Amino acid sequence: MPMYGDQGNKLVQHAKRTQNLAHLPPYQTELVRGVTREVRDLDKDVASLLEPFQGSFDPSADQATACTLLVNHLSMRRNKRCLLAYHRTRTDKLEELAWAGSDVLDHAGQQPGGANNAALVDGGASSLSPQEEDYFRQFGDLLAACKGQWTDIDLTGSLEPPRDLFIDVRVLKDAGEIQTEYGAINLTKNSQFYVRQGDVERLVAQGYLQKLA
Amino acid sequence: MDIDDILREVDPVFHAVPHEKRDLQELTRAWIAERSAPELLHWPANGLFERINNNIKQQIEKVEEMTGDMDPKTNFALIVIQTELERYKYLVRSYLRARMAKIDRHTLHYLSTDALRSRLSEMELAYATRHQALLHNHYLSSFLSSFPPNLQNLNDASAGISMIETPDLECAVFIRLLKDAFVEGRGVDSDGSLDMRESDIVILRWADAKPLVEAGSAELV
User: Fold this and answer.
1) Cβ contacts of A159 on chain B, cutoff 8 Å
2) Which residues in chain B have Cβ-Cβ distances shorter than 8 Å to A157?
3) What Pfam families does its record include (chain A) (predicted)?
4) What CA–CA distances, in Å, run from A66 to A62, B36, B69?
5) What are phi and psi of B64, to 5 degrees?
6) Does B138 have pLDDT greater than 50?
7) Which of A190, B30, B165, B196 is within CB 3.0–4.6 Å of B200 for a Cys-Cys bond?
8) Does A133 contact chain B (CB < 8 Å)?
9) Chain A interface mutation, best of B143, B146, B164, highest count of A Cβ atoms under 10 Å
10) By CB neighbour count within 10 A (0-12 exposed, 13-18 middle, 19+ buried), where does B218 fall?
């Protein structure tokens, strides 16, 4: 027999698993709906239990009802926390992706083989809920606004301390021509270059180039 | 204390630290402190970041000017300047990101009182407010709006547990004394206190270390 909180528990397990995954698993629309429904049902139960008392319920006079109310109440709160935890874990992940500069929503296949994009597409359908897509878009805007205030620093740049000004990179995918202060470089697959780190950071993050130690 | 400090003591005029260097020192210290402290520290109010931004801009312009020059000597200077520039930018970036990460973790906490809000810079405040609004909206549209009204809050404190998480001020930090000071720390079983000399390093709870750091008698390491 399913118990109160079973579904909430499942959500938390999903959240826990998500923490250790590189990609975002599909949104559990059914579970979220189920847990929300449970909360509403519990709330209705509480209301109908309290109804005969007309607002003058005395817990010590009717301990059995008081206990039921308490359990219902706690179950509701627990479900709420499960839902919050589940959604927060996912938004954290989305924010991480936004910081990394990957375009989650651009999954229509314009960039074949884009590692970050593929991670979020599961069997052709997006693994985000429509709300999450909205959230991701808005957070991206927010981030862009913040970056705009620190243009010289490049807020989303690498958080590894810079060691060398120039690095060796190997091109993993054709990335076209880029402009550097020493002229244009044509990045064709499997070629190798010695370039300024700042010029190619973005491309490394996007998986076009590989840093060679 | 390093060699510069000693030189400065011997001859304060000749070895006075130039502006830029002091700013860098301040930035580095703020960066280290921000990364080690469990809670958000005050945004430097003395215009440090305006100065740093100007310096960065100047150096970028200089780099652009020098780029056209093919003289190998300039070329070498260029590499030195660019390397320094990259490091400088890294410090600022890492500092800002460390702060934003903390704000993200405990957004409602930092927005809850004026005293806490004043620790944030204007841009951070805008970011925190907007981010929290986005999150709240997301929760609302995902599930919260179909909840009974009395359960829709995000800042309940019922059953003795506040929904707003706060940073753990009791976690341990390392500090280096910048002046001789009397250090008191609370332990699990008993409290301890010690007369410490300059440049001594101790580990103690952040809550105990905070007054020392804020008074400038110690720095985080």
Assistant:
1) 93-94, 97
2) 89-90, 93
3) PSF1_C, Sld5
4) 6, 48, 84
5) -65, -40
6) yes
7) B196
8) no
9) B143
10) buried
Q: Which two tokens stand for residue A162?
A: 């810079």
Buried b or exposed e, range B35-44, using 16+ CB within 10 angstroms:
ebbbbbbebb
Name the nearest CA neighbour of A158 among A91, A99, A94, A92: A99
* CA B150/CA A119 separation, integer angstroms: 38
* B159 touching chain A per CB within 8 A: yes
Q: List CB contacts (< 8 A) between A198 and chain B.
A: 86
Residue B192, beta-bridge partner list: B185
Question: Tokens standing for B130?
Answer: 């907007």
Distance from C-alpha of B94 to C-alpha of B32, rounded to nearest angstrom: 10
Q: Per the confidence metrics, is the pTM higher than 0.90?
A: no
ipTM score: 0.73
Contacts of A91 (CB under 8 A, 6+ apart): A132, A135, A139, B135, B138
CB B182 within 8 A of CB B169: no
Distance CA B127, CA B108 (A): 12
Q: What is the DSSP string of B174-216?
A: EEEESS-EEEEE--SSS-EEEEE-TT-EEEEEHHHHHHHHHTT
Calculate Rg over the CA atoms of chain B: 23
Contact of A135 with chain B, judged by CB distance below 8 Å, is answered with: yes
Which residues in chain A touch residue B67, judged by CB atoms under 8 angstroms apart? 181
Q: Tell me the per-residue pLDDT of A25-55, one tens digit each, with 9 for 90 and over.
A: 888 888 888 888 888 888 888 888 887 777 6
Q: What is the pLDDT of residue A110?
A: 38
